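Regression check, NAP case 254:
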Amino acid sequence: MFTSINGRSVVVTGASKGIGKGIARVFTDAGARVLITGRSEAALAEAAAELGCEYAVGDVASREDCLVIAARAVELFGGIDVLCANAGIFPSARLADMTPDDLGSVMGTNVDGTVWMVQACLPALTASGRGRVVVTSSITGPITGYPGWSHYGASKAAQLGFVRTAAMELAPKGITINAVLPGNIATEGLAENGEEYIAGMTAAIPMRRLGSPADIGHAALFFASDEAGYITGQSLVVDGGQVLPESGQALDEM
Ligand code: NAP
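Current build output:
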C-alpha cells in the first residue's frame, strides 16, 4: 500500500491536453493540489476547470516564464513537492531539410524547457524535504528511431543525460529525479501524425493498443511516491511492449 500523496503540491508542465493533462488528472484524483501550465491560456483555463486545478500560462523555453510558474505554485500552495516536466513538441523534419528554427524550437522546448523548469523549482523542491521530479522523455531517441525525428530523438536522449547528472546534484537535497519513456500514447499531438501512422503503430505494439495519458500518469505517480524515494536517475519505459519485438516476424508469431 502506497503512502497517500493527498495534499502534496504538484506542477505539471504542458498539461492543457495530452499526456500532461493525463498526469494532472491522476494527481488530482489522488488528492494532490495541482498547477498545470502551457502557452495557450484558453486551453489551460478549460482543462483546469475540467480537472479542478490551478493553471499558469508560460513558455518553458523561457527561463523567466519558468521562474514565474514556480513562484505562482509557491504562492498558491506554499511550496512544490513534485514537478512533472512534461511539456514537449515533436514536429517532423527530415535531416536533409532541417533548419536552425526546426532544431532550435525542439531543443528549446524539450531540453532547455526541462532544465529551466527544474532549476526554477529547485528552491521549493529542496524546502519540501521530499522533492520529486518526473521528466517525460520518450522511447524515440533513447531506444528507437523514426525518420523525421532525429532532432526530437536527440532532445529526448538529452533529457536522460540531464536526469543522470541532475540526480547526483539533487540527491543531497533529498530530491529524486527520474524519467518516464512513453511509447505511442493516444494524445491530440500524436493524432496530428494521421490515421495511417496510428494504425501502423498499433500493429507494432504487442499489447495492440496505444497507451493512454493515464498510463503515463500512473508511472509518474509511482516516481512521486514516498516508496520510490530511493530511486533516482532512472528511466521507466511505458510502451505496451513496443520496443521488444526483434522483427516483424516476431510480432506475427505472438
Ligand atoms: P500534446 O498533445 O501536443 O500536448 C503538449 C502540451 O504541451 C500542450 O499542453 C501544449 O500546450 C504544451 N506545450 C507545448 N510546448 C510548450 C512550451 N514551449 N511551453 C509550455 N507548454 C508547452 O503532446 P503529448 O503527446 O501529450 O506529449 C507530451 C510529452 O510527452 C512531450 O514531452 C512528448 O515528447 C512526450 N511524448 C509523447 C508521446 C506520445 O505518443 N504522445 C510519446 C513519447 C513522448 P500549448 O501548445 O498551449 O503550449
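Comparison notes: Residues 13-20, 37-40, 43, 59-61, 86-90, 109, 113, 136, 138, 182, 184-185, 187-190 surround NAP (CB under 6 Å). The longest helix spans residues 100-128. No diff flagged against the previous build.
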